[in-house]
Design brief:
The protein has 2 domains: 302 residues; 91 residues, no CATH class. The chain has 6 helices and 12 strands. The protein has 433 residues and is an alpha+beta fold. Helices cover 17% and strands 54% of the residues. Helix 3 packs parallel to helix 5.
């Protein structure tokens, strides 16, 4: 009877280099405000302290009064700007926050035209202006961290784990006493993965694709008390579990992995303190995975004038579908303009459907029929429920005009995946065959 089982865990980790493009509505250009600064003919000159200084001594010009009105207007504009920023941080919806931020940027741009008393070119005006401005120069207030509309693309290259399997066997010692293991085994691949997402108005659509492969080989020498050979995936037509010889073994394994996913998310909670912002999402996704295993083992040796030859090949294909519901979180912090840090987590429960198609061919030139040349074909399927977790952390550098580039690392884990069971000892074949 054909047999296979499924393993219960697989994990992957990868280092990532990501490029993110942020697409946000551009703020309207602010009026330079020169037509509303002061209500006298010298208003345009008085917008800067250089103008106030150079105007001293002109007929009909009250320098000290101009300085006082200059400072008073500055305080009013600054208070309005700061109130707009507070309103943006406390807004209960994206549309209101965007409107407040647009007005905030206009006022902040307008304030940049004012020079502080510490930069005043005339010593006589510093004391008056310092009092009018209300103290020492203030540091520029950056925009609150944005987590709104954007298009983002990430690319990863790293190592990912796959359920271990292999081909052939080796044993150093007496049968039934010494441990037996695969002639060649594989449990990881080098993998490239790309992921993109589009976010707007509290909704997100994401998609991903990954591709990777890995291979191992082993050349087991003959003699020296080492037995090696091939183990059948099931009992042979003649009731045998495999071939063991002292001649050595040449074994190779290879696995190819392809995966794609698509899903969506809805924002359920958010907060923004200005320099740090966070949000929580409800998520749903579908993932399809193909894992293709290839194995080959051959051995030969001469004894009493006869050359013994044997071989085994396997082609095994695992298709899996994952249907998942879960939550995701994201925290984004400004470290120092234009450098930002991001931490993301995802937790979910999924249902999986797995299927296997396996073809094994065995041959030798010394047993004769029916075991001299035969094939084992296996088809199987299984379902399961598992836990999925993923964490990502990274740094990104804003390049301006809505674009960023960054470096990311992530780790991912699935508690239950379909894994091929290939025996590596005759006892396993007899106990499960």
């Amino acid at each position: 009877m054909a047999h296979r089982t499924f393993a219960l865990r697989a994990a992957s980790a990868s280092l990532a280099i990501g490029l993110a493009a942020l697409v946000t509505p551009a703020p309207a250009q602010a009026d330079d405000g020169r037509n509303i600064v002061l209500n006298d003919p010298s208003a345009r000159e008085l917008l800067t302290m250089d103008g106030i200084c150079s105007a001293e001594g002109h007929g009909g010009f009250d320098r000290e009064d101009a300085l006082e009105r200059y400072g008073r207007f500055y305080r009013e504009v600054r208070a309005t700007r700061d109130a707009l920023r507070e309103n943006a941080e406390n807004a209960d919806n994206a549309a209101a926050r965007d409107e407040y931020l647009e007005q905030y940027r206009q006022y902040d741009q307008f304030l940049s035209a004012f020079r502080h008393p510490s930069d005043h070119p005339c010593d006589g005006g510093r004391a008056v202006l310092t009092q009018a401005f209300g103290g020492a120069p203030e540091e520029a207030i950056p925009d609150p961290v944005s987590m709104e509309e954007f298009l983002e693309f990430h690319g990863w290259v790293g190592e990912s784990g796959v359920p271990q399997t292999g081909i052939g066997f080796r044993r150093e010692g007496a049968p039934g006493q010494a441990p037996e293991g695969f002639g060649a085994a594989i449990d990881s691949v080098l993998r490239f993965r790309a992921q993109g997402r589009v976010r707007s108005d509290g909704l997100e659509v994401f998609f991903g694709y990954s591709d990777g492969d890995g291979e191992t080989s082993a050349l087991i020498p003959g003699g020296g008390g080492i037995d090696s050979g091939t183990v059948y995936g099931d009992l042979s037509p003649g009731g045998s579990s495999g071939i063991a010889t002292p001649f050595g073994l040449d074994a190779q394994t290879r696995v190819e992995v392809t995966e794609w996913s698509v899903g969506g998310a809805v924002r359920v909670y958010q907060w923004n303190s200005g320099s740090v912002a966070g949000q929580v999402w409800g998520r749903g996704s579908y993932t399809h995975s193909d894992r293709n295993y290839f194995g080959q083992a051959n051995g030969s040796g001469t004894q009493n004038g006869f050359t013994f030859e044997f071989g085994q090949t396997r082609e095994q294909f695992v298709d899996e579908d994952f249907f998942e519901l879960g939550v995701g979180s994201e925290v984004r912090a400004r470290l120092a303009d234009p450098l930002f840090a991001t931490i993301m987590t995802e937790l979910g429960i999924y249902v999986r459907d797995s299927s296997l198609e396996s073809t094994e061919t065995n041959s030798n030139n010394f047993t004769g029929p029916p075991d001299g040349n035969f094939s084992l074909n296996i088809e199987d399927s299984q379902s399961g429920i598992g836990f999925h977790g993923r964490a990502e952390a990274g740094l990104d550098l804003h390049l301006g005009s809505g674009f960023s580039i960054g470096i990311f690392g992530d780790v991912e884990y699935r508690s239950d995946v379909g894994a091929i069971f290939n025996p590596n000892s005759g006892d396993q074949v007899f106990s499960t065959g």
